[in-house]
Amino acid sequence: xxxxxxxxxxxxxxxxxxxxxxxxxxxxxxxxxxxxxxxxxxxxxxxxxxxxxxxxxxxxxxxxxxxxxxxxxxxxxxxxxxxxxxxxxxxxxxxxxxxxxxxxxxxxxxxxxxxxxxxxxxxxxxxxxxxxxxxxxxxxx
Length: 141
Fold this sequence. Notes:
mainly beta
């Protein structure tokens, strides 16, 4: 099944939205990370929190300098989603936790199609009202 999210112009780099297709009651978060689109189920695997309502940010990374001094740096800005309940961090691109764990958030394929394809997609597809300009974001569910 395909679900039309909306116009690509309405989701600029660094932004996100949550859509609620009938098949995914918790919703799906759609993210634009540096011009690439990703979709994650809006459920944290830790305790079921509304993951995609969390903060999109980076994460900290420790590094030991050649002198032996540890340094913590802020990295991957805009690539990490932090659950609002317990702050577990997940990579938006893969759905994997930032820390070592087998936990993972379900991802969905996202495609961006030319605006003239939208009418063909609407036939037999669950849709939401959108304003289409140059391209449309679509999730395969």
